Amino acid sequence: MSKSNQEKPKWFKGLWYEEGDTVTNSYTSEKVELSGPELSIYDFILGAEWTIQISPNQDDPLVDELKKVMKKSLDWFREENPSAHKTLFDNI
């Protein structure tokens, strides 16, 4: 899916990819083609989810901030590509 009009949200501080790729849902093995921006957000969400899960202090303000940005990222993804969101993130 090529969406050249997807702009980097002001709140997103991660890498912003120009080129997309195919990703696979690790639970269902379903594949989805993502644009560069979608792949940027997708990679951030996976990294944030992992970091939150392994954090020893769930009350840490940095973990709280990461959770907020992850929610914004999931909301952005849901709006930009609802079909891919459903395929990739229904379990989150």
Give the N-to-C terminal Cα separation: 22 Å
- Arithmetic mean pLDDT: 92
Determine the fraction of residues in helical runs and give it as a percent range.
40-55%
Which blocks of ≥5 consecutive residues have pLDDT under 50?
A: none
Main sheet attributes: strand count, strand direction, barrel closure: 2 strands, antiparallel
- Cα-atom radius of gyration: 13 Å
Please state roughly what percent of the residues sit in beta strands, choosing from under 5%, 5-15%, 15-25%, 25-35%, 35-45% or over 45%: 5-15%
- Rough shape? globular
Strand order of the largest sheet: 1-2
Number of DSSP E strands: 2
- The run of helices and strands is EEHHH
What is the subunit arrangement here? single chain
Overall structural class, as computed from helix and strand content, comes to: mainly alpha
Number of helices: 3
